[in-house]
């Protein structure tokens, strides 16, 4: 299998796994389900694309088209992770708050109505800029480690 893919996917896994102890240190709450969650520190999106770009830079050089592609697509992924997806999460918070407000209004409503309770929307979709940077730094280190490990073989 392609070593770049292995390194990038491994970096995503390491970043996802790191969310569990980091959350525990911050909130004193053990949540293994964070391994499959979106958002949070560090960004696995950033870790994956940064590790791939770093590996390509070290393996083929920074003047190659491979490196240029990985950097440009990586920047797009990181921008999306902290920009558009984050804004979607902020909007979701407001929608979920509206649902709570409607419930409060209907508590005083004498008219009987049957409400179907929807599942609340997922509120953490994107990343704060620091989470993206944290993922990018982790990915860069893991990309370097992957390169040096592949050189030994």
Automatic annotation (TrEMBL):
Coiled coil: none annotated. PANTHER family: ACID PHOSPHATASE/VANADIUM-DEPENDENT HALOPEROXIDASE-RELATED PROTEIN (PTHR31446), ACID PHOSPHATASE_VANADIUM-DEPENDENT HALOPEROXIDASE-RELATED PROTEIN (PTHR31446:SF29). InterPro entries: DUF212. Keywords: Membrane, Transmembrane, Transmembrane helix. The chain crosses the membrane at residues 65-84, 132-150. This is Acid phosphatase. The lineage of its organism: Bacteria, Bacillati, Bacillota, Bacilli, Bacillales.
